[in-house]
Amino acid sequence: MRLAPTQSRLALAAILSLAAASSWTSGAAAQEPRPREPLIRVSGEGEASVVPDMAVVSLSVVRNGETADAALSANSAAMKEVLAALKAEGIADRDIQTSNFSIYPQYRHTEPKDGVVEPPKIIGYEVSNGVSLKIRDLDKLGGIIDKSVKLGVNQGGQIEFTNDNPKDAMKDARKAAVAEALDKAKTLTEAAGVKLGRVIEISENTARPPQPMMRMAMAKDMAAESVPVAAGENTYRVTVNVTFQLDQ
């Protein structure tokens, strides 16, 4: 049966209206936000202390001369003696590294005369040669510093106590941090009357341990006996952030 033109237009309009309503319903359903998964986020901190087994020492030889060449020659001669003595103490080549080298002109400034300022004049040169040492036998630390000073070291003296391999200490600190985070989560969920679920995410922040340091101004007339040093302990700290699921 054929429809009249007016009936055809009405039927088409009804079909389009139904299609639009269906599309709007589907779009509204798609845009409806999904319910959030119940979660709890906590942090925990753990630490572990260990006695240092290594020291990093910075020493410098500074020499002056009327010319750059004279200052360099004096500096090099003194540094050669220092390096030879360090190696004689059993310090390996891999634990000795030049850390800084510089040549600076030294100036003499004169007072202005009759309003005239004369430019500064170079009166000599200063050469500084620094060396960084890893001393793995801490019993030798004081003696090595003393011997270095006697042989020509006259600047530096920064000591940083550290550990060659803090892997075990870091492992203990991580375990303690996770245990603290888990204890926090259990306390919070028990107080709230909900159940603690599985772990969703764990992240870690590692704090470098504060380094015990000793600084001293070195001079050729230091006491003959070994320099007294105290290594103390290094404390390694780890913070973890843990996200747990909450069971309904």
Number of strands: 8
What is the assigned CATH homologous superfamily of the domain at 54-162? Protein of unknown function (DUF541), domain 2
**Computed CA radius of gyration, to the nearest angstrom:** 37 Å
Strand content: 35-45%
Shape: elongated
CATH architecture heading of the domain at 54-162: 2-Layer Sandwich
By CATH, the topology of the domain at 54-162 is Alpha-Beta Plaits
Low-confidence stretches: 210-224
Mean pLDDT: 83
Helical run tally:
4
Strand order of the largest sheet: 3-4-2-5-7
For the sheet with most strands, the description reads: 5 strands, antiparallel
Our measurement of the CA-to-CA distance between the termini, rounded to an integer number of angstroms, reads 61 Å
Class per helix and strand makeup:
alpha+beta
The helix content, as a percent range, equals 25-40%
Can you write the helix and strand succession as a string?
HEEHEEHEHEEE
What's the CATH C level of the domain at 54-162?
A: Alpha Beta
Signal peptide: 1-28
Organism: Neorhizobium turbinariae
Keywords: Signal
Protein name: SIMPL domain-containing protein
